[in-house]
Design goal:
about 525 residues; mainly alpha; Growth Hormone, Chain: A; 2 domains; 24 helices; MOT14 protein; transmembrane helix; MFS_trans_sf; MFS; MFS_dom
């Protein structure tokens, strides 16, 4: 097993170029404004993920209003949840060009617009476009920056910070369910969506709180990390050669492009300085040229970083462990969503509805899920504990619960399994930490965008697939068994790839000794 990306032999960052001089870390890293970033991310999870967990209230209203099939109407919620995650890689491009703050503010406006336009829906297909696509894309533009910013501001307590911020999903599920139920009862579902759109404008405030770190501060963060892991880096010096052989992001072309653009900007500024003899119209044109040049420089630089991350010599896909992580993500999220979708039907089949109405099993999952995120985050931040090992153990526990849940036919048995599902699924707070360990802070936005895209595909097709299995077998047991087995395949990929990655350098060194 390994604890960080240095152990694997993949480092897409340029930490080695930073000098070994002692640098005083920024006070905002692991403290100060970093906790405002956690608050901002917490509110984002309440407003976005919490609202999506409460869409069952609106789904009942849409069924009654439009008289469409349950399957067709359910696609509105599925599209919204799926697109929020699937657009991750493209949101990574926006972050590379515009930064997290601007991306989140634009996303907040787009999300609110989707809610407000949906209030005027005349049919379900209209909701596909306004709520599923428009609000879904807006949600994705806020969600990814909220996760990335926490990763940038924290080093020593990353897992705890991510755990605290993502607990907003659990709190939001309760708050938004109660709020939407009240608004629909008092004002009707159309006015409820209009009011929810106005509330969603607070996402712009959350985005405004995402103050970007200066590049110098990010370099200081890398120095802190490299100092704390210096001994392991020396022991694994062969990893540097592996990185070079696979290709590292070449910064020389970028520097040449920057120099060329700076020459253009410098010439424009020189003309402006001596522009007393130039007419006002010419000066206005020069200012436009300067603005366009700066915008072009920003866009080209951001696109180059985004493109190189996916298709360049140092593509994220050359990291085999990261590819295994993607395969895992394709199966993992549906295993968490399926119990939320099908537990009510299982309870009805076992004649446990009376006890479930007192304390619903889905509520048990949601409540314990909050504590699971925080506790697993605290454990992962302990110096003697590997985040990767905690992540794997939580996954093994969750897949075991998914496979054993159909065997439980009493309320107590189901409640115990649901509590374990809620606690072990707290590993979601560790996903950004593990991703950052694999690829580095510089590529976190693009890498995590790919991971949540895979989760989005899983969330989009997982529950309908489980329903299709039920239509064939007339039992939910096989839905859980198939989802659990596919999930187990993803976990095996995570377990095998680090072992292969460690074994390869040893084989190479043995061959060198023989020569």
């Amino acid at each position: 097993m390994y604890a960080s990306r240095e152990d694997i032999g993949y480092d897409f960052g340029d930490d080695s170029k930073v000098g070994s001089k002692p640098i005083k870390p920024n006070s905002n890293i692991d403290g100060g404004w970093a906790w405002m970033i956690v608050l901002s991310s917490f509110l984002v999870h309440i407003l976005i993920m919490g609202s999506q967990m409460a869409l069952g209230i609106l789904n009942m209203e849409w069924l009654e209003e439009f008289n469409q099939s349950r399957g067709l109407t359910a696609w509105v919620s599925s599209l919204s949840m799926g697109i929020t995650l699937i657009v991750g890689p493209f949101i990574g491009l926006f972050i590379s060009m515009c930064g997290c703050r601007t991306t989140a503010i634009i996303g907040g406006i787009l999300n609110a617009l989707g809610w407000i336009l949906s209030a005027y829906a005349s049919n379900v297909h209209y909701l596909f476009l306004t709520f599923g696509v428009t609000a879904g894309i807006g949600s994705g533009m806020v969600y990814l920056p909220a996760v990335v910013m926490v990763g940038q501001y924290f080093q020593k307590r990353r897992a705890l910070a991510q755990g605290l911020s993502t607990t907003g999903t659990g709190f939001g599920a309760f708050l938004m369910t109660a709020l939407l139920k009240y608004l629909c009862t008092e004002f009707g579902w159309r006015n409820a969506m209009f009011i929810q759109g106005a509330i969603s404008l607070n996402l712009c405030v959350c985005g405004a709180l995402m103050r970007p770190l200066h590049p110098k501060d990010l370099r200081e963060k890398h120095v802190v990390r490299s100092d704390s892991e210096e001994n392991r880096a020396k022991a694994l010096s062969h990893s540097t050669e592996t990185i070079k052989s696979n290709g590292v992001l070449s910064e020389e072309p970028e520097k040449k492009e920057e120099a060329a653009n700076e020459e253009v900007l410098g010439s424009v500024q020189h003309i402006e300085a001596g522009g007393k003899s130039v007419s006002g119209r010419s000066m206005y044109g020069l200012r436009i040229l300067k603005t366009v040049s700066q915008l072009t420089l920003t866009v080209r630089k951001g696109f180059a970083l985004w493109y190189s991350s996916y298709f360049g010599a140092a593509s994220l896909f050359t990291n085999r462990v990261f590819v295994a992580f993607i395969i895992w993500a394709l199966f993992a999220y549906s295993s968490f969503v399926i119990p939320f979708i099908h537990l009510p039907e299982i309870v009805k089949q076992y004649n446990l509805s009376r006890r479930d109405n007192v304390f619903p099993l889905t509520s048990i999952i949601a409540i314990v899920h909050i504590f699971g995120k925080v506790i697993l985050g605290i454990i992962s931040d302990l110096p003697c504990i590997s985040t990767w090992n905690v992540f794997l153990m939580a996954n093994f526990t969750l897949v075991t619960c998914i496979l054993t849940l159909p065997l439980m036919q009493t309320y107590v048995g189901l409640a115990v399994v649901c509590a374990l599902i809620g606690f072990s699924s707290g590993y979601f707070s560790l996903m950004p930490v593990v991703t950052e360990d694999l690829v580095g802070t510089k590529h976190l936005a693009n890498a995590y965008g790919i991971i949540i895209c895979a989760n989005g595909i899983s969330a989009l097709f997982g529950p309908p697939f489980a329903g299709w299995i039920y239509d064939i077998t007339q039992k939910y047991d096989f839905s859980f068994y198939i989802a659990g087995l596919l999930y187990m395949v993803g976990i095996i990929f995570l377990f095998i790839q680090p072992c292969i990655q460690k074994k390869q350098p040893r084989e190479k060194s043995t061959e060198g000794a023989q020569v």
